[in-house]
What does this fold into?
Amino acid sequence: MARPPLPPFTAETAAQKARMAEDAWNTQDPEKVSLAYTPDSVWRNRSEFLQGRPAIVAFLTGKWAKEVDYRLIKEVWAFSDNRIAVRFQYECHDGAGNWIRAYGNENWEFDEAGLMRRREASINDVAITAAERKFLWEKGPRPADYPGLTALGL
It folds into this structure.
């Protein structure tokens, strides 16, 4: 099953692909998110290595159980034929109410059907206070008129 936009990417289609990924991740629905990846997709997320949709679902289920009030923004950094590099930030808190802003970069590689077959993520966490939060929309995808990372000065 194809998942447009398809490679080769343009600036417009790379931005569209990044926004679609952001919107999906902001649903915090592991099954839905996993459908954007090939059945045998290979991931590196921080120091964890995963392969396949069942591993992706398990990983995301655990992630979002610990990362409460998760809000994410992605922005294209670079792109080529079937690859996109994004920078992202997300905010969340743990069960004790300790907030973080995670800063990261992802490198994505897509198959001809537009499914991500490889994802490599490098991420660093910085403690913030609730008053320092910038991602303040209700749970779910970021509203179309809510600023992105650059507009927020991030």
Remarks:
- The radius of gyration is 15 Å.
- The helical segments are 11-27, 30-34, 53-66.
- The mean pLDDT is 98.
